[in-house]
Specification:
The structure is a homotetramer of 231-residue chains.
Chain A (H helix, E strand, L loop, with lengths): L37 H16 L6 H8 L3 H7 L3 H24 L5 H16 L3 H8 L6 H28 L9 H21 L5 H19 L7
Chain C binds a DNA duplex (21 and 21 nucleotides) through helix 2 and helix 3.
Chain lengths: 231, 231, 231, 231
DNA sequence: AATGAATGAGAATTCATTCAT
DNA sequence: CATGAATGAATTCTCATTCAT
């Protein structure tokens, strides 16, 4: 199976991150100088700093410094500070959704797919503690942001999972009395909870997160299974 | 089942909330002059405003206005704005823990207790959309706060749930392969996720939240059960 | 000769043990109990606190606490915080002037009187480091105060010294080319400078201050003397 | 005699005042754009405003306005309001000390040097009533400031004068019974007293200050002289 | 495009003073 | 007279954003 961790923050394969405004005239291919372009550099710096200090406690100048650019440069690539946070979410989560969709199309049993979903969501986090913290903690800092921007994307993400559950119900392997959407939310919450604890606890060894994920998967799978006993 | 929803914002059982400075020594029952005491009034106003605007976007003057006191009065009862948020958390969550503990001591089957825990956690939230939003969303706004103050209390809360799971394992009704702490975290996360969605979605009808809780309970109970099939 | 330190600030035993809630209705003549009346208590407390923290850094509530009265009580005896400082100056300096005048009327040679003036001014300070610091340092904190209130009193004080110098000139023992007022100012300044250094240095042993004063007196006396050499 | 009044507020010899943060590395001579650099402009404005209203009564916004900069700009060059006052003291007094030292190295009789010291101290003030008032009056406003920052510099200044007196004693022209340090303090106090009176009196004609200084010098010189009469 | 000095609106907090008890 | 909780005007300082270079 392909895909292994498609969201690593730092790999070079970022050239699909459409450089918003700059990129004036010179054909500035990402490989131009081997390094990521400035927008990406700012985004990564922001993830790092937001994770350490939180969105509100982070100064724009700190992001700039971490990215190695001048304060004003931030505003050439982002409308304002909020926009940086939203962009992080959009860039990363929309990628997750995309991968999630293509994974689920690749067939397999319900159990396999379900576990795959969990792996992916935590794969997003594993080895990327900063992004994990930003996505799970920081995004909640502004309910305005959360409501305006995040919800649609988040809902989309949940729908993918809910779709999987619904499919399982149609296939007769999942209890029909469950509401797929609620299930999806609960799953997200459970994984998020585990990840937050892991992240706030210091990130520690990634194996721990994996084991935790496995237990959560197991509980959910057993919990949703339509079995003879209960029919 | 005894005492439903012990966390209603306005009940009289508040006498343990020691007012900071003011409070003449004269026994001043809450009903002394018709209104609850000032600290409590400020706390409630803060819950309302934080829920609507978020912690950072809320001005101290707005809390004061909502509480019907002068700006400076806030500082007679709280060290600063942060302290108001922390106090909300402490006042409410510590009460939840207390009730949780006493509930679990009252006996019953594992299933009954497990469902009771869930009911209590959501009972905290249901009908108190504002508090729900503050506790689940706002508290995350300051990782400093989260780490310094919330974590110990939160951990304590999780330990109560983990204890229940461990007991279930000792009694042979819960799968022994599960880590009680991870379970507790996942459960909190799942319920939190459901509650946040409900809260952000507008709170809606409280029956919805109950039904959702019931499904989550059901999934978890089935998921953790030690049954013949798998032995 | 009389004089011994007529300005003792706190001889009454300064045990700041707050005298409960002060004398409610009982006829409260000042001599009633041998103790200072409330106004005096506040004044002394203020001297103590102003000396330690400076006028601006001192909170009215701190004075109240040090005086063992309620904040509001201050305002029964003084118009406002400024008035407390001004009152300290007026109470103490006007006493100094009175004593100075009566001393100078008692005859003696110019040298004797001159030295007497210096002793008195330092007598005000010696053993009363707090008052010294308030008078020499704190009073300058508000140029408004200094100009409005202090200057007249201060000028009056200087005039007494200038009068002594002028008398010395009439008697032919002081150089006639000197401006008595300038002399008076310089003398005040020199003594003040010595006292401030002593006060800020920690007050130390009072003998030091006396020895310093003696040298200053000696220099000034030699410096102003009309002698054969220069005639 | 060389370099009269080396402390005029506006001369170009300011290049040793290292600007805090701004200041591009490009050599930016003071005359770069016609005006003195911003730090200096703020310092001068502060001297003006502090002198008129006193340190505590001066609002940061007033300094900014007087300097023709935005409020926030102050904080690009100074840590806070206190720092502005301290900087005034440090900039100006340290310059005075420097000049004083070089003057005293230039030889001359004791009398000449002594008068030179007085001229310099008052030369600092003459024509600069504002600075005089700030240095003599305002600096005393915060005993914290006074003790932390001013004392070391002030002591250094006094040591220079004390050194001159000690030298006079070694040369046999000054009474050996005098303590040089006390003398230095008394002289500073006397000049300060004269200057304060002059400044508070309205500054008036500078000739007055000169005459006063001359009289003080004369009194001290006569007072400290070792003459045959007393040997 | 990039810079970073300058801006100035905005917010938390303090504390002298009042006044109902 | 005395109290001290409450008040709210006033002030420092921060920091996102702009714009001349």
């Amino acid at each position: 199976m392909p895909n292994e961790r498609p969201f690593s923050a730092g790999d070079e394969g970022e050239e699909d991150a459409a450089p918003a405004r700059p990129t004036k005239s010179k054909a500035k291919r990402a490989s131009d100088r081997g390094g990521p372009d400035k927008r990406e550099r700012i985004l990564r710096a922001a993830i790092r700093v937001f994770a350490r200090k939180g969105f509100y406690a982070t100064r724009v100048s700190e992001i700039a410094k971490a990215a190695g650019v001048a304060d004003g440069t931030i505003y050439l690539y982002f409308k304002n500070k909020d926009d940086v946070l939203v962009s992080i979410f959009e860039d990363r989560i929309s990628k997750l959704i995309k991968v999630l969709r293509s994974e689920l199309e690749q067939g397999g049993t319900f159990d396999e797919k379900f576990r795959r979903v969990i792996e992916l969501q935590l794969g997003l986090l594993e080895g990327q503690r900063d992004l994990a913290e930003v996505v799970t903690v920081n995004l909640r800092q502004s309910s305005r942001l959360l409501k305006q921007y995040a919800t649609p994307l988040f809902t989309e993400y949940l729908e993918v999972i809910a779709g999987l559950v619904a499919q399982g119900q149609r296939e007769g392997v999942v209890r029909p009395d469950l509401n797929p959407r609620i299930l999806a939310r609960a799953l997200w919450g459970a994984l998020d909870g585990v990840a937050v604890t892991w992240a706030l606890g210091g990130g520690g060894e990634s194996g721990q997160l994996h084991r935790a994920a496995s237990q959560v998967a197991s509980v959910f799978l057993e919990g949703v299974r339509r079995n003879a006993d209960r029919a």
